[in-house]
Amino acid sequence: MEKQQTPQPESIVEIEAVTRVYRQGAHEVHALRGLNLQIARGEFTAICGPSGSGKTTLLNVIGALDRPSSGSVRLEGRELGNMSQRERSAMRRDRIGFVFQSYNLVPVLSACENTEMVLALQGVPRAERRAQVLRLLGEVGLGGMEQRRPDELSGGQQQRVAFARAIAAQPAVVLADEPTANLDSENAARLLDLMERLNRERGLTFLFATHDPRVMARARRIVRVEDGRVAQDELRPVA
């Protein structure tokens, strides 16, 4: 009897021989050096490495915030390098969620208005997006705080608003650059608990750039980047 093969997970991010070279005055900085990486749908993966290793540049390339100098970056099978600026903007709006360590909330907007920004850009009717956002803010533990502006929220609460905004449009992948850097242990644990739950229940794909041991302890895959290349790729068993 022929042995059946286990189906392989669908790749959501495919990176082949990517380089990224910056100019700093008269010098060239090689942030990425022929890097190869694949991320499967539903992963919960940490990219780690020392400062200057290339992990943030890698996240920016995957997130269509930056273009590689050479090589191929595909998201859901679509080559990012061949896209126009308009197409790249649409990809960031519709398929990529961003969580930044500085939160990047609009100071004059409420938690609800900050969260629904992407949905508004997508043209979702106001009543529909408002109902969706109110449910989501309740899910992240911000029920009753929907009308507070960022300066009326703690750092941990602001980060949860930023996270809610990142997932509101149901992106293909959530990219988080040092998401716990400004959080104390309690708020970091709450955010990671929430991310793990949504990864498990909704199948959301999470990719972190981090040097925080608290994040790496939760990751099911750790990709270590050094000098712009993948130095180590460790899969961990699912508990």
In words, what does this structure look like?
The chain is of the alpha/beta class and 239 residues long. It has a single domain, classed as 3-Layer(aba) Sandwich (Rossmann fold), CATH 3.40.50.300. Helices cover 33% and strands 29% of the residues. A hairpin with a 2-residue loop joins strand 1 (11-24) and strand 2. The radius of gyration is 18 Å and the shape is globular. The model has no long low-confidence stretch (mean pLDDT 91).
CATH superfamily: P-loop containing nucleotide triphosphate hydrolases
Strand order of the largest sheet: 6-7-8-3-9-10
Summarize the biggest pleated sheet. 6 strands, mixed
- Structural domains: how many: 1
List the helices and strands and how they pair.
Blueprint: E1 11-24, E2 27-40, E3 44-48, H1 55-62, E4 70-75, E5 78-79, H2 85-95, E6 96-100, H3 111-115, H4 117-121, H5 126-139, H6 155-167, E7 173-177, H7 185-202, E8 205-209, H8 213-218, E9 221-226, E10 229-235
Parallel strand pairs: 3-8, 3-9, 6-7, 7-8
Antiparallel strand pairs: 1-2, 1-4, 4-5, 9-10
The gist of it:
With 239 residues, the chain is of the alpha/beta class. The chain is built from 8 helices and 10 strands.
List keywords for this structure.
single chain, alpha/beta, Rossmann fold, four-stranded antiparallel beta sheet, 10 strands, 33% helix
